[in-house]
Amino acid sequence: MLDDRKKRVLQAIVEEYINTAEPVSSNALTKSYGLNYSSATIRNEMADLEKSGYLDKTHTSSGRIPSEKGYRYYVDELINDNDISIEEIKYISSKLETKVNEIEDLTKLTATTISEVTHYTTLSIGPKNDEQLIEEIKFVQLGSRMIMAVILTDNGLVKETIIKFDEDITAKQVETVNYMFNQKLKGKPLETIKGPLEDYLFDEMSYSVNVIKPIIEQIKKAIAEDEKIFLEGANKSFDLPEFNSLEVAKNFVNVLDTKELMEDMLNSGFAQDINVYIGNENEKEELKDFSIVTFKHKVGNKDLGTIGIIGPKRMDYSKVISVMKYISKKLNGNIEE
Amino acid sequence: MLDDRKKRVLQAIVEEYINTAEPVSSNALTKSYGLNYSSATIRNEMADLEKSGYLDKTHTSSGRIPSEKGYRYYVDELINDNDISIEEIKYISSKLETKVNEIEDLTKLTATTISEVTHYTTLSIGPKNDEQLIEEIKFVQLGSRMIMAVILTDNGLVKETIIKFDEDITAKQVETVNYMFNQKLKGKPLETIKGPLEDYLFDEMSYSVNVIKPIIEQIKKAIAEDEKIFLEGANKSFDLPEFNSLEVAKNFVNVLDTKELMEDMLNSGFAQDINVYIGNENEKEELKDFSIVTFKHKVGNKDLGTIGIIGPKRMDYSKVISVMKYISKKLNGNIEE
DNA sequence: TTTTAGCACTCTTTAGGTATGATTGCTAAC
DNA sequence: GTTAGCAATCATACCTAAAGAGTGCTAAAA
User: Which ranges of chain A have pLDDT less than 50?
Assistant: First the structure.
């Protein structure tokens, strides 16, 4: 347990380092953070904090930088989760008033807004398939050999995909397909489509395998594909001093380009709505130099997808978390102005 | 006009520099390019080529690198447009056999294939709106306050968008809308939708402005939005030595992140199906360190969109152009195996 | 007991200086 | 027209020295 002054020193070092990206000296703290002690006293505290693992040095006579344990303590105990200015509130409000017709668009809009306010790169992904129920499936004939399947889910999402056939299909066939699919799938989780649909649809529809088969194939593909990741503000990260190391920059581009990595990242455990992963807390080796904050995006209890912020370990956690909390409140109508 | 030996020297320098990214010395050419002259002779030729502007030096006693004029001459006169191996042919063939149901998917697939074979970053965009005719518009009711508009174009593309209303709409209304839109828009270029639709639809449908207005708004938005750019292999560029310059790397990420820039790039003048822009030949200052090869992708006379390759000026033009030409032939069934 | 002044020590950063090696341009010979 | 030979040029790597920032520790002050 840290005493009060140690906490203040740690907080000051974390925040100073977030601002400057330079190791923080004992002298800097006495001047700018109202710690009314001599630099020698601060040095003693810093030595203690280092011994307990909250701070690191880059070399023997350098100033201190926060360790991952230090960041973790800061995020858990010292953060200001209301670090948001009037201007930012106004900007966010105006952005969120934009009318969107699809839920995925709202997720993207939110991600873009977060990226703009925090100046970090954001990733977003739509709601997970296993948390959505199929409300209805519609099949619309678009031509003699082409139909469109439209899947409506309970959280208001619409997924559509096109199916082409090698032979003509009739309106009657489409109607039958429509009936059967709804019969079997209505109310089930979207995830069901990924399973062995053939087995229990073929039985009853064996008379039209060449119609049913491409449909199943295609909607499976569409469902899988729909877990697409949206990326915003990749260039913003490149202005950060961390990215002067080519290795870090390269790693970053690689991470963003590796879709599986990002999916894992966005889908990893959600104890809370906001989760913070600092450096090596990330499961993937490639992410050891980055911090990620994920934000499970909800209105009421409708899942709207997940937004992730990726930035240096020296991320402005207070700002990021404050913005996320504000947006969450705003979208749920819990704002007392 | 260059004499034969000068051409050979220029070609050797361009190709050597493309391979090594290092200034090419006179000595290197006598050894590896079968130019059976002494290095002094080559030096004389190099001095002449430099005087005529085809080569540059990085400093007084360095080897030569191609100037933009040198690359241009190489692309126009010296290129080998059949620089493609059996393995590459096999790989491309297998990729292009993948079944895709939407034309945009074919463009993406092609872009991905090019990226994989050439190891450069590719951008792609679907067919231009003004080159597609509206074949049919379908309106499908998805709920009491939600419909979907599906636009079919003559080149086989399908665009769909969802429209939500503040009040219930009836099947009858949807039917009327369906009739009116098809009446007015069938056979017109997709671009028409961007124009002042209101004027000539409102006249005849003034009785239901609150139905028509959101529809027009939304399909306009959808058409505009649909000119989306697909990006593949951004991380590949980072392995190139050019990207050891942080300024170049940063510029690159900025370019990729700036959608307008990429759109302009993909839509700029098409004298031929394949266009090459070298360094400052690009209209945008930001692209001065890059070369871009655009490829107007067609099957028969159906426009399938545009694919662009972005890489360093030291791009392997022969490979890139060979691959594009091969794919073009393949998709048009003009391959004699 | 806590805080602070003072100072030696450590390490980074910058600048300058030198040697090395690659490559050219030029001259004169082939 | 071609080539050998050689001085001149410049990048690169490596070394050293000096300056500056910051710490750790000791002993004195509060």
Answer: none
